[in-house]
Specification:
The structure is a homotetramer. Chain A is mainly α. The first copy, chain A, contains 11 helices and no strands. Chain A has a single domain, classed as Tetracycline Repressor, domain 2, CATH 1.10.357. Chains C and D meet through helix 7, helix 8, helix 10 and helix 11 of C and helix 7, helix 8, helix 10 and helix 11 of D. The structure holds a DNA duplex. Chains A, B, C, D: Pfam families: TetR_N (PF00440).
DNA sequence: TATGAATGAGAGTTCATTCAT
DNA sequence: AATGAATGAACTCTCATTCAT
């Protein structure tokens, strides 16, 4: 992605994008608090003040990342709302969700590993709302408490699996399929009364 | 047998203990970075400098909490190493693990919500090691990739479930049972080839 | 005949004027230091850089306001210099001064409330000079120290009165007359040896 | 005042006092906004952080100065409240007020020259309250609008006189007497119906 | 007649940590 | 067993100003 090499003159007018890219990279690695604006600016080869030309606050950079990168999740939710509550739909929800996560992997890794931070930030509610909605789509009509746990676990396992199985041996694509399989299994189980 | 630094309670010197208690309370609520020594000291009614009489650094407080509160997990691992690899054993591992988590709930909540921080701290490896060992105990002998995911999910779901189902309605004890049920189910599934 | 820098209104280029208006409004409310160019630009709906097309520096905006709004005071001084030193003249000086103040109320309020700032700025000397000259016009020939104080008080009271009696009840016009009355009284007293 | 010379080891435990002294000196000269904590710290030979050991914020330093230095004014108000409303009392109010101002001259100079700043700060209301109370003590019972202006002018003239007549020639003590004379005259006039 | 993009300097504030007492 | 006093480094953020377009 990006031209990859020379940084001084580089692109024209893509600074905003580059701020987002580098910020995402850094907070996924180090967390939000430990990533300073100085560090972001240094990596970009600009001044801290330049960041403030493009974003109003530090948190605003993160918010913009969320808005840009979680749009697919919102679309997924919108789509799901119009579908019949069949297992096929639920299966597709999981699949799509997996794809969205892989596409925005660093952001999801950040969310997974910095839940305390996310909770305190302005995006916290959004995140929780979406999770609740998604679980609701997966639930059977007469869900028992255990069924709720199953569907919740399905989502959680996808999140955690994506980022904590990195050090396990095996082809990533294969691992992804295995995770999806288990998640689907959990949702299916929830429907077998 | 004391761990070298001569700091066992010593009867009537419970400040050390109180530092740990308040620190745990605060980091579970706010995270590690956002909890300052000033805040801890203020809540205790002592000076920041007093903290340094009892602990070498801020991180040291956290480390001591880990050592004190995760001992049951280590014992569980030791115990498990001597048991036969039967489903009954595995079932008991999950049960005991659940109990240990509830007993040290704030610490586990902290670990769940601040994975990035934990990873960077000196305790990070410990945590990962223990998780790996526990998953290994749960695995069947001829585990497929999906089986690994199942056993991993079992543990993860227990963690996440304990702290994210707080706002779901229902009796806590009942919820705990449901979580355990699903976790057991996942491990069982892993053995049904 | 334009003053060199080509910046007379020129019909349909009222931005310069609007910058002055908004700046005056803001510094009268908040003071000079606490009014930023960003704020001025935002209120105008232009960029900060646009301000620099019309004025060389922040201070320059203030200077221009002074030059435009205190012209009547200069004219008053010129006029007074040609009048006989009678009480009637002095009475009229006070009256006219009051009118000038009301006409440029925000600027005078700013001067009253930000004396430290005005003193440090390039306009500081102007202000002091004018005050001295005006007091001199009001003084009797054989003025005692107390007489100087009386005439000085007359002017000061007009300034302070105009802006600090705002929260007192009563018709503004009436208050103005009362202030003028007291000022005149002070000058008269100074002449009663 | 103070030992005057060597600054490095100097006093023990008087840092708080020295912060107040230097801050007062600087804000009287330059104003509040233009006086930075860096400057204060440098003059003291300590770090900015040291200031924060003694005061919670920049504004807090100013507040502490107010509390310490305007106590005599509060006492004056308390005293006045118990006196009969005679001209002798009023005369003494003015005299005492003048003394209090001279004793805390730099602070009063700051207040006189930075009214906009004072107004916005937490001390603003205090200042206004006190002024109102003092004027009320000076007023005759059946005060006309002009009488209010006279008493108000009396106070204002004392303030302004003290700091703006600095460059006029003459013995300071003599000037002070002249100012008091005019102020008394104004209050007297207010009672001559 | 303006804007977009940036800078350098500096602001106030907070932090973990130290050390003599 | 603890305090008082301080430090150095870092933080987020704002400012007036510049300049190519």
């Amino acid at each position: 992605m990006s031209t990859g090499s020379s940084h001084k003159p580089g692109r024209r007018g893509d600074t905003r994008q580059r701020i987002q890219d580098i910020t995402l990279e850094l907070i996924a690695e180090q967390g939000y608090e430990k990533t300073s604006l100085r560090e972001i600016a240094e990596r970009l080869g600009v001044t801290k003040a330049a960041l403030y030309y493009h974003f109003k606050t530090k948190e605003d950079i993160l918010v913009s990342l969320f808005q840009d990168l979680t749009a697919p999740i919102d679309e997924l939710i919108e789509w799901a709302a119009e579908q019949p509550h069949t297992m096929a739909t639920k299966q597709e929800i999981l699949t799509r969700y997996g794809t969205a996560m892989v596409d925005a992997a660093p952001l999801f890794r950040f969310m997974q590993e910095n839940q305390a931070t996310v909770r305190e930030l302005s995006i916290g509610n959004n995140v929780k709302d979406r999770a609740t909605k998604l679980v609701d789509f997966l639930l059977p009509e007469d869900a028992s408490l255990a069924d709720r746990v199953r569907c919740f676990s399905a989502l959680i396992s996808m999140h955690a699996g994506m980022f904590m199985l990195k050090e396990t041996e095996g082809d990533p694509e294969e691992k992804r399929r295995a995770i999806l399989e288990v998640a689907t299994e959990l949702v299916t189980r929830a429907h077998e009364h």
